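User: I'm writing a tutorial on reading structure tokens. Could you give me a worked example: one chain, its sequence, then its tokens, then a sentence or two explaining what the tokens reveal?
Assistant: Sure. Here is the example chain.
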Amino acid sequence: MKGTQVSTASEYREGVAYPPVHPPDGDTGRPPADLPEEPARGSLVRGLVRLVRPYQWSKNAVVLVLPLLESGTAPWRAVAGALPVLVLFVLASSATYVVNDLADRERDRRHPVKRHRPIASGAAPVPAAIVLGAALYLALLAGSAAVGGAAIPVLAYAVTNICYSFVLKHVSVVDVFVIATGFVLRVCAGAMAASVTISSWFLLCVFSVCILLGFGKRRHELTSVQNEPSELHRPALRAYSVPFLNSMVTFAASVTVLAYVSFLQSDAAAGDMRQLRILLSTPLAVFAIARYLQILLVSGEGGEPTRTLFTDRTMLAVGGLWLTGFAVLLAVQSW
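And here are its predicted structure tokens:
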């Protein structure tokens, strides 16, 4: 390990990548046993808030996509109908983060970056985390009873992610597919709550783009930890290789474009309007995928897809153009 460049933890985001370490010769990469634990930072409340990762809640906005796209001339009414399900997914995803960090706390304590997570660092004591997780699940069950059948995908998401936290995330390929399935369940729940049509092509589009982002994240992680002690790796990474992940990223990108165009062609919009939507939005979708591949394969970024999508100026510009075009077409169609 001599000559390895040392990078500070501040240069890395939690869950994005594993930073290079520079242990003494013969060291395993664990912090020396005689060093005291880093003191917990902030109050208990702050630690518990960090534990549920509010910055990740934006992922649940996928719930609102089909109500916006398939509700015809009354999208906001459909969105209002889907908002309770959005809240349920915030509860379910927050509870999942608590369970995940409880399950990984021992491994996280040995990791140079993840040891700063609330439970691993002591900012959120285990008993308090257990109480928080139980409260979130109880709130989820109570809310599910109020929304009826639309809660079925939410409960399926919650159960699947409990299995993911303890078993499935350690199985290569399965780990990425489970994450993608979670987004498909979000889309289904939103459509059911808003009483709009569930498009199979759109579900395939969501699934494939999540596969693209998931394998892209694994590729970034794998290239970041190749010189690290194996005990610090995500276990599933041991069954991945960069060529395999490159192939999966390319495959998923192709399927995403095909599914998106097929969704537009199967849309209920009539004649010329359908063709106009295809003509205007497809180049933007293809460009967005090309930009993500450039970030991943050329810039070596993409370890945290959510942050990439919401901070890259080019991606934000493309998203803004897509939303503007959608709003204009919706206004024309309504008029």
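What the tokens reveal: The two ends are 67 Å apart (CA to CA). The first helix runs from residue 44 to 51.
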